[in-house]
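We both want to read discrete structure tokens more fluently, so let's practise on a single case. Once you have written the record down, we can walk along the chain together.
***
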Amino acid sequence: MRKIELLAPAKNLACGIAAVDHGADAIYIGASRFGARAAAGNSVKDIATLIQYAHRFRVKVYVALNTILTDDQLEEAEELIWELHEIGADAIIIQDMGILQMKLPSVVLHASTQTDNRTVQKVKFLQDAGLSRVVLARELTLEQIRSIASQTQVELEVFVHGALCVSYSGQCYISEAMTGRSANRGACAQYCRLPYTLYDANGTVLQQDKHLLSLKDLDLSAHLEELMDAGVTSFKIEGRLKDEDYVKNITAYYRKKIDAILNTSGKGKYKRASSGTTTFHFEPNPVKSFRRSSTDYFLLGRHNGIIQPETPKSTGEKIGIISGIGRNYLEVKTSAVLHNGDGLSFINEKGVLEGFRINRVEGNRIFLMEIPEIKPGTEIYRNFDQAFDQLLKGNTSERKIAAHVRFEEITDGFSIQLEDEDGVCVTRQFACEKQLARQTEKVLENIKLQLSKTGQTIFSVEDVQINIQQPWFFPASVLNEWRRMAFDALETARQESYEREQPATRKNPEYPSKQLTYTGNVTNCLARQFYESCGVTDIAPGFEIKAEKGVPLMFTKHCIKYEMGWCPREGGKSPFAEPYYLQHKDQRFELKFDCVKCEMLVSG
């Protein structure tokens, strides 16, 4: 059976622990430097603490070092990888192929989505280069994923939830070109979330101040089993900049979705990648967390409606419409239960998202400090649920590992044998004087009761087997102490028995092309050496090293012509003269369309 992994993000140690507690099979977290989210760095000490916590549940911890490196950063990056390996990291997520030329420990490497993994040839190359896993591009269809899986042996990881970059990952240079903040170095200025005015060649305004490059958030929760059957091993939640509440809610949501498959139609084909059973004290709901609406993107093919042009902010859940307006209140036609302090939003007449907080609720009337300019019939969204937020601040989950207890009499006392769901077994013997009980009928009941208590440990007792010769007397305090010592020993044994995966073998990789342009992101001597060893003869420096003029700054599957209904492949025709331009303030970008590849290019 193939293991299926739920991979959750961690901005910091607290988020990582929350992800473990809410059912993640693996965590990905940024190191102190060289992560694609520069604002989400973590110390080696904190990562070590997370690893120790996670490994108790056989949860893996992957550390992201997925930026491109300059020559003066190579030594520091190599030292950091050694430190992370020594504290027990299960894998390092990389973008820069120069890392493969370093003197590394026996460490598992994953190819970040930043390495632009869209084709069978590219994935095969990374497999032969010794990468144990490849994170696929978000733009792939289900059929493309199935094709890659059928022709490779490497583990495949896909994003199933969260924010989408409009450009192919690793192929966006607009932030570097305009601000000097490189997306490939974790400092993206998010030009895709800005409002733009769309012009044609004659200066005609086609769209005014719309977020034409801002994609909706990904949600593939309805297609998990299809992805499993296509060959996917790991389901990744985006969000290394998200807070703890987001991690709790979204991880729990996907845990329940995946478990439902594993326990029904997927039974016998797939199994969970970590240990323990998670009990939730709330009902997870993805619309309650930050999201720019939702899309399945290109999984089932190209379609309209993948952008959210009105706003790059979280719209929340649609709850109803405005049915009336009073002096200091709005009447809302809704089936939702509203609360004091809820945050509501709507799209105003200018096409801009506008929000407000509820001061007080009385029936279907919401009282506000100030009434916005709004008309009856306007759709209303809730992007902050006060009650749900408070719920997430409390105790929301419990994760326990099943254990079996055997209590036996031995010559000079008694023994407790514990075996957990992973087959880890310990036995502890306790010498003591034996004394017959006065109330013999309650002896077995008392033993079972005391040995079933697991309190704050990570274990839950499935059953207790008792084998004693006489109805001996056992003070509850003694049984509790023996139980505590036995379970402490079992947890220690679990830690000592944890085995990390061994890295894949490198097999003389040959790059699919003899040429690498600036999109190869070669920014150091080791990366150049690597590609030369793979048969590449013409290697251009990366954009961050030598910024070429007039080249595309974004390569995107999203196409404005398609969204506008002008796609020639679909029989459409634009009434406006090309080329088209996007303009934000005084910055202007030309749009080019490669209809053969079905891609849009944004040039400065």
Remarks:
- The chain has a mean pLDDT of 95.
- Residues 401-497 form one domain.
- The longest helix spans residues 476-497.
- Residues 22 and 248 are 6 Å apart (CA to CA).
